[in-house]
Design a protein that fits this description.
single chain, mainly alpha, three-stranded antiparallel sheet, three-stranded mixed sheet, 15 helices, 7% strand
């Protein structure tokens, strides 16, 4: 039983070994077949690579050949262009050489001429020196023969000519002066006539009122209040004085500042409309009137700028409010804001007629009297105050100067002269201003006294409402030539010392009367 077991085990082992060898043989066969296939694939790839390399070498040779042919063609073309350029350069060089030779020849001729001129100049200077010596000797001998110097002889001749030809000289001087004055006056009249034709403005005098109409007579007592507490509160808060008299239905507001008078007027109107008048209500009414007035002044300033075409954004809002204050400021009964608008328009029109830029003239004309808006609250004359205000808000010097120029006798800029003329036109037109009788009479007296203060004046009369002064002179002291000088001197003194609207005509009259009796 042990032997069959061994035989079976041996058979199993033999079978396993036979199977192993069979599989090893089969695997080797498959491996050899795979290596053969791989070798074949590699050989095919190498063959394809060789074919592709041959094709690439053939293409590369073709491209290289084409590139060489193109390079050769480009080189030939470059040689042709270079040859043409060399020809052009040679021709240009030849022309330059010709011009250089011509320039050298011209320079040589110029130097020769300069040498000849220098020699001629030396000869002339020598001849001039010789002539001066001869002239000096001749003058010396002439002075010795005449017995006087050359200056003395010239003075005698001038005096003799002045005595003998005084009338002719005077006539000639007057002719030239009148000719120049006539041309300038004609041009000025033409410009002003065109401007005035284009400009139209109201002839009605606009004045700020200082009176308040009452709704009833018992309102006077209510405004005064118990023991005068209401009226004292109003006067304290507004800085104005209330004059309550027997005038029916009316209260007078007295104050130096027109803005304060307007605040008081509006506050009273608010109180009368409310009906309750007591210190607390008065304080509220004054505050409300100040706010309303501030808005009204700002709106008035903006309206003025809009009317003249000046951008509101270009002006500081504070300056716009200051400009609006002029609405409640008058000068000789003329509303200053309306006057400033008129000056701006007239100045702009004059500038257009003269070919100038009208915008700076309008701006300068509008702000030329800005100092009057605060001259009640600040010390100094309004031209200087206005100059300082405009300078503070960044205006250029030429615009700031127009605030001063319109009160100067001879402004130093053309813009200042135009604004001064526009200011005079606006103030002198009919209905623009009103003067008191005392001021009118005083102006006439000053005109007569100024003209009568000159030597040789017999009488002086102011006529034509102060627009003309007729001066009668002593014929024995003033001749025709001196009369002409006297008229100019009187006009200059009136311009420098007196204030007047428009212009004043000075007429000097020299009358000679010869009396004889027949017996």
């Amino acid at each position: 039983m042990f032997i069959p077991l061994l035989l079976g085990l041996g058979g199993l082992i033999l079978g396993a070994l036979a199977g192993f060898y069979y599989r090893a043989s089969l695997a080797k066969t498959q491996t050899d077949s795979a290596e053969a296939k791989a070798q074949k694939v590699i050989e095919e790839a190498k063959e394809k690579e060789r074919v592709m390399l041959d094709a690439a070498r053939s293409t590369e040779q073709k491209l290289l050949l084409e590139a060489k042919e193109k390079a050769f063609a480009i080189a030939e073309e470059g040689k042709k262009e270079l040859t043409a350029k060399e020809k052009d350069i040679k021709a240009l060089q030849d022309r330059l050489n010709e011009r250089e030779n011509l320039f050298d020849k011209t320079l040589l001729d110029f130097e020769n001429k300069k040498t000849r001129l220098d020699e001629y100049k030396e000869k002339l200077e020598a001849a001039k020196a010789q002539i001066d010596v001869v002239r000096a000797d001749a003058d010396k001998k002439l002075e010795e023969v005449a017995g006087m110097s050359r200056e003395g002889a010239a003075e005698i001749i001038m005096r003799q000519v002045e005595v003998e030809k005084q009338d002719a000289l005077m006539s000639l001087i007057r002719k030239y002066d009148q000719h120049s004055e006539e041309e300038l006056e004609a041009h000025a009249r033409k410009v002003l006539s065109l401007v005035i034709q284009r400009f139209a403005s109201s002839q009605v005098v606009d004045a700020s009122t200082t009176f308040v109409e009452l709704t009833s007579e018992d309102m006077k007592g209510r405004i005064i209040g118990k023991e005068g507490r209401n009226i004292k509160a109003i006067e304290h808060l507004t800085g104005c004085e209330l004059i309550i008299d027997d005038t029916p239905g009316m209260i007078t507001i007295s104050g130096f500042s027109p803005v304060r008078r307007q605040v008081a007027k509006r506050a009273l109107e608010i109180l009368m409309k409310d009906g309750r008048i007591q210190p607390a209500k008065i304080e509220d009414a004054v505050k409300e009137s100040k706010n309303d007035l501030a808005k009204d002044m700002k709106k008035a300033g903006e309206d003025a700028l809009y009317e003249l075409g000046i951008p509101v954004s270009s002006i500081d809002p504070k300056l716009v409010s200051i400009l609006g204050r002029l609405k409640y400021r008058t000068s000789y009964g003329q509303n200053v804001l309306q006057h400033s608008i008129e000056v701006a328009r007239i100045a702009g029109m004059i500038g257009e007629e003269l070919g100038l830029d009208p915008f700076p003239l309008k701006k300068g004309g509008l702000f030329h009297d800005i100092g009057k808006a605060v001259d009640h609250d600040m010390q100094g004359a309004h031209p200087q105050i206005g100059y300082n205000i405009m300078k503070k808000f960044g205006f250029p010097e030429e615009l700031c100067y127009q605030s001063i120029a319109h009160h100067e006798d001879r402004p130093r800029t053309i813009e200042g002269v135009i604004v001064k003329a526009a200011d005079a036109i606006s103030g002198a037109r009919p209905g623009a201003r009103r003067n008191s009788v005392e001021e009118y009479l005083q102006r006439l007296q000053n005109l007569e006294a100024t003209a009568a203060g000159f030597p040789g004046v017999e009488k002086a009369f102011a006529i034509q409402a102060g627009r003309e002064v007729r001066v009668f002179v002593e014929p024995g002291q003033i001749d025709d030539y001196k009369a002409y000088e006297l008229a100019r001197d009187i006009a200059k003194k009136i311009e420098s010392e007196l204030t007047y609207p428009g212009e004043v005509k000075v007429t000097v009259i020299r009358e000679t009367r010869v009396i004889e009796f027949a017996r």
